[in-house]
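Hi,

I'm pasting everything inline rather than attaching a file, because the server keeps stripping attachments. The sequence lines come first, and each chain or strand is labelled.
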Amino acid sequence: MIDQNPVLALDNVSKVFGKGATPVYAARSVSFALRAGRTLALVGESGSGKTTCARLIMREYQPDEGQLLFRGAPVSHSMAAYRRAVQMIFQDPFSALNPAHTVHYHLERPLRLHQKGLGAAQRKAAIEELLERVKLDPALMAAKFPHELSGGQRQRISIARALAVGPEVIVADEPTSMLDVSVRLGILNLLNEMKRSLGLALLYITHDIATARYVAEDIIVMYAGQIVEWGPTESVLNNPQHAYTRLLLSAVPDPDVRFAQSQYNAEMADVENIRRLSAVPQPVISEVGPGHFIRPIAG
Amino acid sequence: MSVPVLSVKNLSIDYIGDETDFRAVDDVSFDIGPGEFFGLAGESGCGKSTIAFAISRLHRPPALIRSGEILLQGRNVLDLDTEQLRKFRWSQVAMVFQSAMNSLNPVLTIETQFYDVLHTHLGMNRAQARERAAELLKLVDISVDRLKSYPHQCSGGMRQRIVIAICLALNPKLLIMDEPTTALDVVVQREILQRIDTLRGELGFSVLFITHDLGLMVQVCDRIGVMLEGKLVEVNAAHDIYTAPQHDYTRKLWASMPRLHGEQIRQGAQ
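And the predicted assembly:
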């Protein structure tokens, strides 16, 4: 595998849809590892396979090839420990919470399910602690219903709910894309802080590369189900080697650069071609810097 | 600046409530010059879309324009009667909505949707409309054989470009784009905005571009207005909005956006 003692790893995982004449690889031979106290960003456009990876990790999909490794061992069907250890934060804070229940209920539920030993008073104390952790006032928040909360507050409740069971891995799929700009940074800071203080392994899925840079030590760029480039975030962003990564970086909104002065305008002028070539399966991997890899386009 | 294409003067818009009214747009004034790419930035609920709708009088109750003027080439849009308004929309001001790619009629071919507008407004026949539609599709880099397609056969980005082509069919003076690319991927977003930028140079229309993405706005706009709670708090050249923001809110917006290069969060703006 890729490195020493990851908490969770995908080992050559593929997920195929439509098994007829033209099967579609939503994920093709995807391998990566999540380590305690580190964030891995998964970036790419819609349909690149980011969310498929999240679903594989959450075991909503079974891999068609390859396997999921939790602490080095293959993940089996009935692993309560895995369910507890791997939690998810969703994109839409408006649909992720049940409108009929209070904040207290949302946080008590996972405690009841996963920490059966706790009494009512202990659960109440645990809920207060969770709310404080996500910087919300327990006295004000616990009795509220989701509709009384802002988008940012709801996302904090989602995070608190994920933390309630004492997870080791958190998968955050576009956790800030539906929030206003001024609220996003607070959520990103919270994720960074959780990672540090709780030693969580974080998978941060996004199309917003600037926020990926803000939270993640390592980054993976996906296209058409395949990882095309990966490595330390600064190395990949400052020195992208794959044509698709350059194309993507050129298109990311960047107030420092007017359109005409973009660094990778050659790639921008060749969109169709780069997309076509990048979608071709490439088994060959080449190292282009320390820990920085690409699947080079053949030919 | 030469005579503005659009001049919004002291515009105030309320949303009428049972007990109290909510002031969504509060005494807003700005001009857009000929061929200018003007951006209106702000967070949800700041009133930017309300302004966009009011300019083509597409706002609906409970929105009510309390006071102010909206002058398009000197003519007050608020004085137009129904028939004048019908002629004014599309030929003077065309609008691209956030979910515009879903505003194409699913049961008509692209060609028929072009014919609809070209026939109604210019009295063109089928053959004339097809010729003009082909020209317009070329403008947005879409192959002419797409005229025979139905919307569901085109990708989201393609549909959005088709909508833009339809918007340009009557050579409007002003193109309003309200979050036109928010639902699209960055590469497609970039292609579309780059195209619009080229077209406004070639065809000479002005653009009112509304988005919450201030970074993108600085890349493409000439001037930018920043809105906060219904008020236009700062208007300046795009470059200055970025490098020398005057209003505290603008500075805070920049300070909350992680950057792609250099320091994680820009400190220079204070």
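Residues 176 and 208 of chain B are 5 Å apart (CA to CA).

If the labels don't parse on your end, tell me and I'll reformat.
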